[in-house]
Amino acid sequence: MSVSTSTGSVIEIGHPWRGVGPFLFAVHHLDAYPRGNADLGPAQDISDRPIGQDFGNPSGWSMYHGEQVPGFPAHPHRGFETITLVRRGVVDHADSTGATARFGGGDVQWVTAGHGVSHSEMFPLLEQDVDNPFELYQIWLNLPARSKGVDPEFRMLWHEDIPVIERDGARVTVVSGAYEDLAPLDPPVASWAADPASDVAVWLVDLEPGASITLPATRRGETQRLLYVHGEDGVHIDGTSVASGAGWAPVAGAAPTVTAGDQPSVVLVLQGVDLGEPVAAHGPFVMNTQAEIVQAFEDYQRTEFGGWGWDSRSPVHPRDTPRFATYGDGRTECPGDQAS
């Protein structure tokens, strides 16, 4: 049930979380994976799991579409972007441009699908002697019509480089959009977030018990913002109780004050100016018309968006591989290194 005040409204955000402005939706994966086996999968019997439908399993973890290693084997995207924030665990990435990566522990991967890319996102369980807790957010950000046909691009935002502000028990991770005097890292060149007119921001706010923070107001009157609340407890926003699993939609120009309760809380802030364009979406494709959706399916069936050059539909790296990214043009980088 919606609750409205003079500064905003409590709303149901559903699952996956509803989008706002240019954001299509967001999902939060939290899996209490057990110890891993020699093949980087769970050291437990999974023969009874409905592979491809194994979501939200009561055991506390899911295989998703992975048959041996949890995750999402090769699948296509066109016409939008994915922003993947990995809080715990690692993700092994491979795509149809020839790029590959391993990232996690606070890293962010930003993929502009453009005219089409196939990629896999696998969650190898590296630890064999202890459990493998895993947590990530994935956010879908729409692209304007002018950018839906660009070449695909992915960019790594290593956690060592992502701006963070810590103050009085509050920690803000600035993935996109300036926060006070903190400038974010650059998104991919064709991203809607790269246009100053977009006012796109992605901030992740961690609050210790009882901590409070006042977020800066949006810079543009047409900017839409939504606060996604979750964690061990809810929060109070401008004095209104917002339960974990709910959202807060502030009124235009508001600078909401968020206060945690007796337990740590997390608030994901998404904001941006709506594209003002029609949205036609079906599965992994987001375009402007249904005809373009049909074309996307036909193109993928014909070309697989460049083909799949990997031996497996769900490739993973060896257990001891450190975090890295290799791009389609052959450049390789590691956290703290210059691209080479």
TrEMBL record:
Residues 205-306 form the Pirin C-terminal domain. Residues 66-141 form the Pirin N-terminal domain. Residues 311-340 are annotated as: Disordered. Pfam families: Pirin, Pirin_C. SUPFAM superfamilies: RmlC-like cupins. InterPro entries: Pirin (IPR012093), Pirin_C_dom (IPR008778), Pirin_N_dom (IPR003829), RmlC-like_jellyroll (IPR014710), RmlC_Cupin_sf (IPR011051). It comes from the Bacteria. Belongs to the pirin family. This is Pirin family protein.
